[in-house]
Amino acid sequence: MEKLVVTGGAELNGSISVSGSKNASLPILAATLLTREPCTIRRVPDVSDTNYMLQILRSLGAEVERASGTVTVCAENIHADAPYDLVRKMRASICVMGPLLARLLEARVSLPGGCVIGDRPVDLHLKGLAELGADVSVAGGDIIIKAENGLHGKRVHLFGKHGPTVLGTDNLIMAATLAKGTTIIEEAACEPEVTDLVEFLNRMGAKIHGAGTRTITIEGVGQLHGADHTVIPDRIEAGTFVIAAAMAGKKVTVRRARAEHLESLFTVLRESGYKIDVDGDRITTGRIDNPTGCELITEPYPGFPTDMQAQLTSLFATVPGISVVTEKIFPQRFMHVAELNRMGANIQLEGATAIIKGVKKLSGAPVMASDLRASAALVLAGLCADGETEINRLYHIDRGYEHIDEKLMELGANMRREKA
Ligand code: EPZ
Predict the structure, then answer these.
(1) Is 330 in the pocket of ligand 1 (CB under 6 A)?
(2) How far is CA 298 from CA 120, 121, 326, 355, in A?
(3) Does 306 contact ligand 1 (Cβ within 6 A)?
């Protein structure tokens, strides 16, 4: 096990480059199962989640090669059983279900467990696939899904009590690409990662319209062919570095970002008084003297992303005044709060709302990483805390951030990885 020891107080300067999106890579890699022909996916980040996905594709029978950020997959001869020991490690593995069902008319994928950010149901995934004609059953912790009479296009409503489902939308789109007839998904997720998946699928010969809106239409086709695709920049990584710059930076530029994917973050930071300068794919910002607290509610895209809530809670911990953060996507996603309070923050939880009273300074302490984004939030807090912050269970961060410590050290941060 490794830990990260962050010594607070260093001023960040300079620029870093954003990696390819983890959350776009995962469904796009799963989509390579839809064709017997080879596919090339570029700018796939080297993080444990994408590496788990490559292991799952190999275990399904696909040939997989990775050369730094470029992955080639040839799923000529595959079978339908996704291995429990791999699937249980990463909930997003559920997105192999749609392509397996479309290609083989069957799939066996273990039910993803819950995780620290809360219950992770897949009822909407299963409801959508059943609407296309699949028979769904659960046995021994596995989802067993079959479509003996094939899949047939349908109008499907995909909306749960917390809004649309990102991977549920992905699964349904992928299943519908080879269904007979046309599928219309209503209340679809609009995240940029869904749009990137659709771009890849259309390159493979799919006929999909409406990505990025709440209504997506998929005309089924006979088969899909191989394609070459470069994954979009990771907007959550980019946003995490923009927040790091606002907390501890003099002048920091985040390069190779898609600024249009970060509008909701810029709105909150500008409301708080920060100056955000956007020039093409470069975003520049830094600390200011008197930021003010504000209100934040997480919502489905284009609203403020739940995946940046923990990082912004870290920022608000030392912003004078009161800030209020309400988590509407994963109401329990506050594992970082207890750890931030150990560092001297003053955050009260009331249900799915955090009331943050800004304190002058945080103080370094040994803290525990829990989920990917909570861990990133603790690194950011350590950057501007007095003394040393030890972040244990670093594997949580390595799931979704490509060399976050190296990139922050390039900007001048003072930190080191150690054996825990
Ligand atoms: C994706 O997860 C992301 N993961 C998550 O990022 C992100 O937090 C989430 O979308 C929300 O934006 C990937 O893309 C790999 P959902 P997903 O289905 O698709 C409920 C990270 O940090 N729901 O959009 O699994 C669910 O409980 C990760 O990179 C149902 O009720 O999330 C939640 O409250 C964490 N039934 C809400 O919908 C279902 O069948 C949104 O979940 C499915 C979901």
Answers:
(1) yes
(2) 17, 19, 6, 14
(3) yes
pLDDT confidence of residue 113: 62
- Ligand 1: does its nearest atom lie under 6 Å from the Cβ of 303? no
Three-state SS at 175 = helix
Question: Which of 178, 208, 230 finishes a domain?
Answer: 230
262 and 399 co-located in one domain: yes
| Digit-coded pLDDT (tens) for 71-126 | 999 999 999 999 888 888 888 999 999 999 999 999 999 987 667 787 789 999 99
Is 397 a pocket residue for ligand 1 (Cβ < 6 Å)?
Answer: no
- Let me know whether 336 and 387 are in one domain: yes
Closest residue CA from atom 44 of ligand 1 = 165
Domains: count for the chain: 2
Q: What's the domain range around 238? A: 2-19+233-419
Instruction: Give the distance (Å) from ligand 1 centre to CA of residue 380.
Output: 24
Q: Tell the residue nearest (CA) to atom 22 of ligand 1.
A: 307
Check whether residue 284 and residue 220 sit in a common domain.
no
CATH number of the domain where residue 338 is located: 3.65.10.10
Residue of minimum CA distance from atom 14 in ligand 1:
23
Contact 107, 138 (CB under 8 A): no
Rounded distance from Cα 113 to ligand 1 centre (Å): 13
Ligand 1 center to 288 CA (angstroms)? 34
Choose the final residue of a domain: 230, 257, 274.
Answer: 230
Residue 206 CB contacts under 8 Å (≥ 6 apart), including other chains: 177, 198, 218, 221, 224
Residues 195 and 288 both lie in one domain: no
Summarize pLDDT for 403-416 with one digit per residue, the tens. 999 999 999 999 99
* pLDDT tens track for 150-192: 999 999 999 999 999 999 999 999 999 999 999 999 999 999 9
Residues 226 and 237 in one domain: no
Best residue for ligand 1 mutational test, from 166, 236, 264 (most atoms within 8 Å of Cβ): 166
> What does the pLDDT look like over 353-397, one tens digit per residue?
999 999 999 999 999 988 899 999 999 999 999 999 999 999 999
Give yes or no: residues 376 and 289 share one domain: yes
Count of beta carbons in the 10 Å neighbourhood of residue 277: 11
Residues 175, 179, 185: CA angle, nearest 5 degrees: 60
Site of tokens 């912790």: 141
DSSP 8-state symbol, 222 = S
Tell me: do 272 and 187 sit in the same domain: no
**Residues 158, 118 share a domain:** yes
